[in-house]
Specification:
Blueprint lengths: L1 E7 L2 E6 L11 E9 L4 H5 L9 E2 L4 E8 L11 E4 L2 E2 L5 H4 L10 E2 L2 E2 L5 E2 L6 E4 L2 H4 L1 E2 L9 H5 L4 H11 L7 E5 L3 H12 L4 E5 L3 H9 L4 E3 L3 H11 L5 E6 L4 H10 E9 L10 H7 L2 E4 L4 H13 L11 E4 L3 H9 L6 E4 L1
Parallel strand pairs: 13-14, 13-16, 14-15, 16-17, 17-18, 19-20
Antiparallel strand pairs: 1-2, 1-4, 3-5, 3-11, 3-20, 5-6, 6-12, 7-8, 9-10
Helix pairs in contact: 5-6, 5-11, 8-9
């Protein structure tokens, strides 16, 4: 089969690799229908995370089950499934409290599982799915093609935005500011509105992203950054700041902006993968600003979010503004790196 391999910074190739096989009785093999490039993939693509040898990459996909092991009972061949960006048994103590990304038996795509068997990256034609019963979520039926991009967001980007909103405590009537206008930040705008936020401010300097933020429910847009941007948020919210701030970038500057944008007693929900982040704890202490979040436990949210996507009440797949065949995966990465695309969809 063909699969995406990152050989070195800025060197993404579509290589021929062995087809995955069932290894354990708890495995499934899924044929990928659609995958995508994540903003977190760019850390390795740009060389911020070390790339010392060729690496299979990709952690977002939807597809159709081709084979299942003898112990698999929740999905069957022919099912259309969503694969979260981490696989898990969904039964261990961590999973039972909704933190499947810390599953005792789980892991992440593109490396060895805990039994030492290789696990494929998801930007390829086929994938072996460990712990298939706990990991895969089947849709109610075979989706129409136009629904596939929206379902694909459930593998990572939309639940990650949702996690930011949940971590910050967004509820009916909350005021919200979102730091970051990438696919996760835009998803966070949609998630906050879905949870009942009364007013959402999107922080963005790009007209196309501002337009989508408003389509997702943003009431205001702040174009400035840093202290000036935080001050603009405070002005919008009675000079205090937002109840809930969603940090969706992961840099020191974005975290500082998020903390400054929260009202006294407010909460920052963070989902940006941290790079160079330090915290001014004394200032947080003095203003009673809290911080909560981390890696989004996608599997914990799918039962709640899938019906809204399946029934068309929300359309998170609008974050995909570039669709390319898998053969052009290098172009998909380049477009996101150069910010000519918000998020790249890969079709198979």
């Amino acid at each position: 089969m063909r699969a995406t391999v990152l050989h070195a910074p800025f060197d993404v190739r579509l290589d021929t690799v062995p087809d995955p096989q069932l290894v354990l009785d708890s495995d499934a093999v899924v044929r990928v229908v659609a995958a995508c490039v994540c903003g977190s993939d760019l850390w390795s693509y740009r060389g911020v995370n070390d790339v010392t040898e060729p690496k299979r990459i990709g952690h977002e996909m939807v597809g159709v089950v081709e084979q299942v092991g003898s112990d698999v009972s929740t999905v069957k061949p022919g099912d259309f499934v969503i694969a979260p960006f981490a696989y898990s048994d969904n039964t261990c103590p961590a999973c039972r409290v909704g933190v499947q990304t810390s599953c005792r038996h789980g892991g992440f795509w593109g490396g060895d599982d805990r039994d030492g068997h290789f696990v494929d990256g998801l930007q390829g034609e086929l994938v072996r799915v460990p712990l298939a019963d706990g990991t895969l979520v089947a849709t109610p039926g075979m989706p129409d093609p136009e629904l596939v991009p929206h379902l694909l967001t459930l593998s990572d980007v939309f639940p990650t935005g949702h996690h930011a909103a949940v971590s910050a405590g967004v509820t009916e009537g909350s005021t919200v500011a979102v730091v970051g206008d990438g696919a996760v930040g835009l998803s966070a705008v949609l998630a906050a509105k879905r949870l009942g936020a009364s007013r959402v401010v999107a922080m963005s300097r790009h007209a196309d992203r501002q337009e989508l933020a408003r389509a997702f429910g943003a009431d205001d847009v702040v174009e400035t950054r840093g202290k000036e941007g935080a001050q603009a948020v405070k002005v919008i919210f009675d000079g205090l700041g937002a109840d809930c701030v969603l940090e969706c970038v992961g840099t020191g500057a974005s975290m500082d902006q998020a903390l400054r944008s929260a009202r006294p007693g407010g909460m920052v929900g963070y989902v940006g993968v941290p790079h160079g982040v330090t915290l001014d704890v004394p200032t947080m202490f003095g203003r009673n600003v809290g911080l909560n979040g981390g890696v989004a436990p996608v599997r914990a949210y799918l039962d709640e979010l899938l019906p809204d996507v399946w029934e068309g009440r929300i359309q998170p797949g609008r974050v995909f503004d570039l669709s390319l065949p898998l053969e052009q995966v290098a172009d998909a990465y380049r477009a996101m790196d150069e910010r000519t695309a918000i998020k790249s969809l890969l079709t198979l």
